[in-house]
Every structure is written in C-alpha cells, then in structure tokens.
# Entry
Amino acid sequence: MAPCRGSRGNRAVNTTELLSRRSRGVEDAGTLMRHNMKVLRSILLQDNRSFIKVWSKTSKSSIMYENGKIYFENYQNCYSCVHSEPQVLYKLPKRSKVEKFEDALLCQSPLDKTLASPSDHKASLLTLTANNWLYRLSAVTGEELQRVYLSSNQKFRYLGWEVSQETFYVKSVQNKETPLERRAGITHNTVMHLAIFHVFPLQIVGIVEINKKYMTEKLKLGEQSSLLGDNKVGEAPFGIPVNIQITDCPPVLFEVSCSNNGVQIGGYPWHYIYTPPHKTHKGTHHICSLKDNTMASNGIQNMSCSSLESDGIFFHPDDSGRIIHIGPTTINVLKILGELNSGLPSKVVEDFSMMTLRNNSPTSQVTVTSSGRTVKRRFHQLDDDPDQETFRMVEYEDELDLLAVVVTNGEEGEGRAHIRLHDNQNGQLQRTIDLLEPWDETYRHELFFDKDTIVHIEQKNSSFCCHVYKLEANKKIK
# Structure
C-alpha cells in the first residue's frame, strides 16, 4: 500500500504501519488518532475520491444532526451516518401532545471517570417533555436509562449547556403578566426558573428562582427533602423544589452598549467583538480588549459591502484565538497580536483571505437596446446577488483541520451551490464538492461536515429536507 503524505508535514505516513500499530495497541493513543486523521485527510483530498449523494429524506418537523446521528420527528427517530448510507438506529413509540419532546441534548460518555452504574457510562440523549419530565435515553438504542420529574409548579421548556458535557440547565418559560393583569396593576416578581444538573452521573445542583426584587438546602435525586415535606426529590408529583434564592443583584462583570445585543468574547489575550448602537457604526465590527476595553489597532473591521444580508464575524472555533469575517465576496481570517501583560494595545492583522471566483469588472450602468435606445440602470447589483458567486457560510472540521466554505452561483435562474475545502492553516484551496440539490437563498440552510460525511439540511416553507453525501472511490470506466 502506498504511503499517504499529510499536507502539513513532509514525513510520509504509511497506512499499513498505522493499522498494524492500532491492532497491537500503542501507549500514545492521541498520537495514533492524529496519524489516523492525517491519513483520512490525505484520502479525502485525493483526485480518485468523490463525495456522492447517497440519501435524502423529508419531514414535516425539524431535522437535527449531531455527532454522526440524524434526528427526525422531535428526536423520536434516529438514523446513524456511520454506514455507506444512513440507517435506522431506533424509532421510539409515538408520544402524545403532553408527552412530546420539547428539547434535547446529546451527552458523550466520559473517559476519565469511573462511575457507579454501567449505564452512567453510556452516551445518552437528554430529552425534556412537555409535561416536565427529564429523560435520559441511550443514544444507541433509545432505551430509557433514567427519568426525573422536574416540577408541577413551573413550565420547563429549554435545555442548554452551562459547561459542555459537564453541567447543563433546564430553563422555564418566562413568567409574563397578561394584559388584564397589567391593567389591574398586578406584577409577578418571579421571572423564570433554572434547574441545574451535573451529568455522568445525573445529579441535581438545584433550582434557581430568577426574581425581580443562597442555597437553602442541598438536594439529591431520589432522597427526601424538607422542602417537599420529606417527599423524595425528582419524583412525581412533587418534582424538585426551589432551593437556591438570589437575594441581591450579582455584581456586573462586564457591560457594553451594542447593537442587537450581539457581543462575542474570545481570542488570546481575551477580546470581544461588538457593533456600537449608533447608525454611523452600522456594518462595522469593533474588536476591543476585555481587560480594559481598549480598541485594538486596526480593530474596526468593515467589509463595505452592499448586500441584503449583513456580513458575519465570529471567533474561530479551533481555539486558535483567530477571527473569521465572512462577506459575500471575501472571507478574512484575522489574528490578534498582543501580549497578556503588555501595556501596548493589541493589533489585528490578516492571517489569510479567501475570494470568490467572480468577474469583478464593474457592470455598465448604461445599456443600449436593439432599437438603439439608451437605457440607464436605476439600481446597482448587490454583492450577494444570487446570479453571482457568493460566500454563504463556513464550517470547520476540527479533526481534519479543514474549512468547508459554501459558495452559491445562479445558473439559468436556479440557485446552485458547491463546497470549497480550504486548509485551515493557510487558506489554500484543497478541493471542490458540488451539491446536487438546488440552493434557494430564501430558505434556511444548515451544513455539517463530519469527516467522510456531509449533511445538508434545508427548510422549505413548512417542510424540511435532509441530504447526505458520503466519501467514495471513483468508479473505473471500462
């Protein structure tokens, strides 16, 4: 078998050698994993490999993808993307309206802990039902592993991570006064409730009441609590009591006035990105030090584009501290230069940029008809015009260290899209992948690039559609 050469190193990586080492076992599992990903990246970028569309499925409800699994019908049906085309992993029985899943979180099994129960080590799906039950289901079979009743007094609806794969919260709906109560001068001090849990194993920290105007008792699931009249915590009909009360307003750690409540924090040293709430700053992104609010040198980024959709900017998900700034024709990857304890302001510089392959010659504002009449345009073509090649979104594949950039281009009135794979370190174009289905910019789109799998989810009015592409070897033509 021929050696595979990684794009970021000069030393050849022999596939047979790596497979042999894996079968025998090696001490440095992290090194072996990195070698395996280099081999996969090398294979993926070969000319004799292509991403082939292998599967499509529509649904009347939202479709979700996470960690190699596609969820349909409010997480009741699960398909695995491990095989050459998605296969059913499990289908749960239909649930009534009061028992339907409102939200879900996928929990990965911890590798650094020894837990009391074997089921605690299983990857699981946390689901919240409309009638306030929290279920822990097996991510592989859908089997119920654990259930907790939250409360009969509050309506919980949302799940979210406080610390990813460690601590999560269950948030109630916001308590608002009705128009009749407002006219009568009746107000509710309680705004909402948060139930906070540890995972692996599932343990309650407590329920916090967010009030307009400390921990009173430590709780444990399945044990008695005086707050419930010595009834057990997490069992129906009592659920979990409110045991944390905030009596004073917490100190403000950070405050900034911004447009659309949009602030992002990241980089090294710590910086934040925001747009000031003034018309003169519309379309600009300001990068400032979190330590003292000092504006970075070259810290105002502005694409100066004329488009229906505004440009996007965010900290790079690879933890490099870089910034990705996406416009319709340009993607800039920026880095922050600065020392942690330096008195000098940091500086924002370009690491690399990517451009669309469109004709940049200006469109004539005057045209001549067949009869010889001169017609002057009353509008300018937008930078994100569907007929022009336009950047739409960027996804990062962390294990292959590749950027997947979605580019659209109208052909004969029908929108088409392709994916450009760029090296994450220098932005060099590695290969291009065509998407077979039309891309309508008026619809909502999501794209997931997960090693040898590409998943495209689109929302068409009231329906959803999922398209799956897999990496395959090109068939030889006889």
Summary: The chain has three helices and 35 strands. The radius of gyration is 27 Å. The first helix runs from residue 15 to 24.
